[in-house]
Amino acid sequence: MIELNYTLNQACSFKLKNDKGHTLLKSVNFNSEEELKATVSNLKTIINSPSKFERKTNNQGNFLFSLKGDNGKVIGNSKKYNSEAGMENGIKNLKNTLQS
Question: Model pTM?
């Protein structure tokens, strides 16, 4: 499920949630609704490219990933995971949610 969010200062973003309501990916802010909707409509294509997922470890030892668009810019970021396996499962859940 994709939840679109709009703020008072005209910024817009989205959250991708699984069927239980847990947020799998929180997007960056987009400058326009058109840019937001174009990105959302392209998500199914983007997730099929492994190079679009950037896996990271922060300085507290948590694992997270970013999803990048065709232009190389970050579209959104995951939550923090306690293990690399958890992060990989988060990516798998993201893909499964978008493909269903």
Answer: 0.88
